[in-house]
Structures are given as structure tokens and as C-alpha cells.
Amino acid sequence: MATIRVTLAPMLSDKALTAIVRDAAPRPLDRRLLAAHIEAIPAELRQPPLPLARLILALAGVEVAGLPRLVCTGCGTHAGPDGHASTTGVRCGPCARTCPSCTRPYRRAGERMCSRCRRDVHRRRGDCAACQRTDRILDARGRCHHCRADRRCADCNNPAAPVRHVDGLGVCDRCALRRTLDPLLPEQTAEPLRRLRQAILAAEPVATRAWLNRPRTTAILADLHHGRLECSHTALDALPAGQDLEHLRALLVAAGALPTDPHRLLDRLTSELTDTIGGCGEPDRRVLHTWIRWRLLARLRRTVDTGADLTAPIYHARATVGQVTDFVTHLHRADRALATCQQADLDEFFAATPSTSSHIRSFLTWAQRRRHLPGTLQLPPSRRGALAAPADAEQRWSIARQLVHDGSLDIADRVVAALVVLYAQPISRIVMLTTADIHPAEGTVTVAFGADRLELPEPFASLITKLPHRRRVGTCAHLPNQWLFPSARAGKHATPRAISTRLRRIGIEVRAMRQAALIQLAAEIPPAMLAGILGIHPTTAVKWTRLAGGNWTGYAATRASGR
To answer: Dihedral through CA 377, CA 382, CA 383, CA 384, nearest 10?
Structure first.
């Protein structure tokens, strides 16, 4: 004991050291082995006697410093305090937990193999011959547990589909969806809701059933069927707002249960903006009300008539009105109104919040024209984004070749990227394409961007005729849809931001690629033809032609002379 104290643990008490030695060398033979090797211990031990290895690991566990290094017989690294000593040698923690049969790190200390391998000693494990599932326990015919049991759906008697328990019965996913939907929208429901029921039953069953099991979805559908909730926009507007409610509303509109009301969002926005400007004093509140009604909302109503999505315009309108209200409040704190605003007030406001100039300048310009704001005031300059550097021509054509040959890309992503990279189309216009804009005829496929139709080459001509292409077959996929690039919400097209994000994931920066395409097309096509093909304004076409260095001044005379 004294030798052990001097050699390994001089700071340990007699009681603690005695207990450690008794556990490491419980038999007389172990103690003799320990005494024979304790005199001269090297700094690194590769094959130490078992009692000595146990002793060093036990002392390492109580944080004794200066101990010899135990080398793992499995990986050759330092075993450390979490190592394990046995008759086969010393192993570090990861090697000690690795099962020698399956090489999985699930073996416990002192076990020869993991519990799974002990159970599988007399079992056969491999790929199921029936369902092709891997790593399954097989019977004599090579079938797994699910395949050798006659697990049939209690409703449709389908033996191939996975079975889950619903209402005490084992049914497949499709029948489980029907059993979940029947109490909410039974088969005898009214005609508009029956179309929604049919779309739900045709959707992907697992995710759709999880959506139906949400408490709010369950309550709204049940109330609509039993007449406790009127199927109208007014009744739905009275419920607490949320994305789940808007998703269900879109499904009801697409199924024909609710009428299309494109101005409903604008009506709600009008009420919201009226409350926003309510804190402003007279007569500035009347000025703001006039601007909102005849300028801001009029522009949004024109956007509604085009069928475009209003999410981004409404967000921008809320931000603009909020900043205009902040400016009017800033004037009121200085005991001034719009009519008595001074240049110092304007400069002070924009010095504190310089980022608001791009939003509030449109209101200030309108107020000056209507003489609600002094005409002598100098408004902050409008912010215009600098022209980004166009993509390199070689990079552009490399991406174009990838779009032609890479069949692993999503169909919608390939078509959108081709329209950007080859034809310089903005994302905001691409997402507005409908199935009516595509015309396959006489072996060609054309798409309308402007006054002229553009013929698409292969493979994009074939790909665009396969649209719309949904990544997940949900309820929306079985309801009427006109958009080539639909969103996850029924009856809506994908947003430009979502499409741009998807293109960025495959290495396409939309703005740089579009500018590179515009420069190349403007250099090769006269401005008048370019405007008609791409659907851009003639002035914009002329600007890009000048930027590309094109000279088409003699084009009309050359055509007229027949040269």
C-alpha cells in the first residue's frame, strides 16, 4: 500500500486508497500481480495486467494527477478516465461501447455484445423480400414482421397499405383520412362543401389528416356543416385572425363554397388605416384620409383588377401610412401642422429616420401638389437602387446548359430559371403566368409576355406544358387552379420572394442574371421588337439598347430598302 501511495497517489487518504485497491485487486492473485508491477511503471502502458489497469482507471476517476497513460487496444489513443479494462485489454470509452458484432455504439460496460445482437443470435436479419425494407428480422421465407402478418385494412381490405389504428380498428391511411373527415363533412353534406370534401379525400392522407385534427380546423368545418357558422366572408372575418383561417377560406373559395371577393382585403385595410390615422389632429387627419382614399387605395384597387397577389402591396401600404403618421405626429409635437411645416422640421425628421424617405416621399410630393404642404420645402431625394453588376456571360451560359441537361432539378425551377436567364423576365411577371398564356400548336409552344408571342425551345417547351407541378399533393392540388406556379394556398400564385429563394438555392441570382440577359438581347434585337417580345416599355428597351452599345438608328431604312 505504501508503494502504491508513493508511486501513484501520494495525496489520497488511507481509507480511500484502501477501498480503490480492494476493488481493483479483490483476489490474492490480483494483489500479487499488482505488487509485482507497481515498482517500475512506464509512462505509457499498452498491455498492463488487469489489476494494474483497473487501479489506474479508478485513480483517474477520482482525478489523481500524474498517472501513466493507458493506451486503447482498439484505436491506439489514450483510454482516459472513461476507459474500460477487461481480460482482452484496455479500451477507451467509444471502443468499449462499440459492439463487435454490429459495430453500433450500444454495448454496455461488461457486456460481450449489445442487447440487440444478443437477441438476434438465433434470428435472421436482412432486407424483406416482400416490402424491400432494410435491416428487418426475417422469417424462413424472407419476410419481415409486417409482411408475414395478414395486416389488412378493415375498411378497404387492402393488404399492401400500412395500417394504423383509428376508432379501435386497423385501417390504411386513406381510410383513416375518410374516418376523420366523416364527422366533420359527411358524404351527405351540401354541394359546395361536398366538392371540398372530395378534394380533401384525394389529397395526401397523412399530412391532410394531421391538418384536420387541429382543433380550430375541426371546429370550423363542423360548425359550417351543422349551420352553426354561416359560410360567408363576414362570418369568417368575425373569427380570430390567423394563417389557418385564411388557408381554410382559400379552400372554400376554390371549392365554390365562398364567392370570390378581391376587395375584401382592401376593405379590412381601409378600416385598419382609418384607426392608424385616428390619433392625428384636424385638419391633417382629413388630408391623410383623402390621400389614403384617392391615392393609396386607388392604386391597390388597380392592382386587384390585374389579379396580382396583394400580400406585398398591403404590407408596403401599412408601412407607408405608419411612417406618414409618425411624420404628422412629429409636426404636432412642435405645434405645427402640414400647412405650417418648415424646412427644419422636415430635415430633423429625416435625420432621425433616414430610411423612411423612400416610403414617405410619395405622400409629401402629393401633399405639395395639392397645396397641403408648403411648396417652398425641398423634399429629400428619391432613393433609387444602383444598377447591380450583371452576371458574367460565361457563367450565364453555364447555368443555361445546366437547365437544359440537369433533369434532377424541379420542373418549375427549370422553367422559371430559363425565363430569367434566357429571356430576362422579372419574377413578378413570371408568377402571374396562367395556363391560358401557354399555347401549344403544330409542334411548337408559345408563351405571351407582351404584344408578341415567344416560341420556347426544347426542353423548356415540353416542361412548361407539364405545369402546374406541385411538390406535395395536398387539398389545393385537387381544386380549380389557373396559375402555372401555384402557392400552397388554394387559388393563389407563388410569391416572387419564394421563387427567388428557390432559384438562389440552385445558384441563380435573379437580378444579375436578368440584367446580363437584357444586355445581350438589347445588343442583338431592335428596341421596338425587344419591347414587344419581352413585354417591356419601349423607353426601357431603348435604355437597355444604349447601355448595351447597340445602334439601330438605320434599322428601319435598311428594312425598307430591302438590304
So the answer is: -160
DSSP element (H, E) containing 363? helix 357-369
Helix, strand, or coil here: 384?
Answer: coil
Q: How far is CA 179 from the centre of its chain?
A: 31
What does the DSSP 8-state code read for residue 475?
A: G
The H or E element containing residue 459 is none
Q: What backbone phi and psi angles, to 5 degrees, belong to 204?
A: -60, 120
The CA distance from 24 to 56, in Å, is 9
By C-alpha distance, which of 563, 453, 379 is closest to 554? 563
Low-confidence ranges of the chain (pLDDT < 70): 1-12, 39-40, 109-110, 121-122, 148-151, 159-162, 307, 354-358, 383-388, 550-563
Burial of 13 (0-12, 13-18, 19+ CB in 10 A): exposed
* Separation between Cα atoms, residue 257 and residue 231, nearest integer Å: 7
pTM value? 0.64
Concatenating the DSSP letter of every residue in 303-358 gives HHHTT---HHHHHHHHHHHHHHHHHHHHHHHTT--STT--HHHHHHHHHH-GGGHH
C-alpha pair distances (Å), 90 with each of 93, 103, 288, 320, 409? 10, 18, 82, 71, 51
Bond before 459 cis per omega within 30 degrees? yes
Spell out the long-range contacts of 82-89 with Cβ–Cβ below 8 A and sequence spacing 24 or more.
83/57, 84/57, 84/109, 85/50, 85/53, 85/54, 85/57, 86/50, 86/110, 87/50, 89/47
Strand partners, 124: 138
H/E stretch holding 143: none
Count Cβ neighbours within 10 Å for each residue of 424-445 and write b for 16 or more, e otherwise: bbbbebbbbbeeeebeeeeeeb
pLDDT by residue (tens digit) across 374-404? Answer: 989 998 877 655 556 788 888 888 999 999 9
pLDDT tens for each residue of 276-322: 898 888 889 999 999 999 999 998 888 887 767 777 788 889 989 99
Give the chain's end-to-end CA distance (angstroms, integer).
112
